[in-house]
Amino acid sequence: MIVLLLSLSVFAEPIDPCAFNPATAVRHGGHTFPSADAFASTVVSYVPGPGVRDPHRDASAALGPPDWHEGIGAVSLGNGKRRKAGLVLEFVGIYITDIPGPDLYVFEVGPLVERTEVAISPDGETWTQLGAIHGSTRAIDIAPFGVSPDVHYRYLRLKNAGRPSRPPYAGADIDSVGAIGACRLP
Asked: How many CA atoms lie within 13 A of 121 on its CB side?
């Protein structure tokens, strides 16, 4: 019996970390995400630009699935294009990968969708710029930006790139960021 089990495990195919399982899929913003843990889960850094006041300075509001409700549950990036201002998030246990169609979705909330620069990184230091979201465009296909299928992109950086807006929630207001194209880390 033990010999049979060992021989079966030798010939078993490895589990694909990118395999889509409909049983774990969740829908938000009209897009299907592979699971509830396909959302940013750690704040690496947050430096707000001018015009942000409490309660819109809580960077943890950008973590997990979208939950904004009646003006609460989003972090504001602030006005201006200060070099250090912005929000860096990490996807723990998963990485962003390229699939056909959109790979990322930024849940920017409020009456205006302010222009926001987006970048991804495997290590939090070397960044691939993905351009900017603006207007109602919040889904991003990473393929046109020269991403490598062999690189595990775990970090995402958001920076305000729009015109000034009014306090207390100046700049883009981020509720959540989800990886539509997500794979589990080995």
From this structure: 15
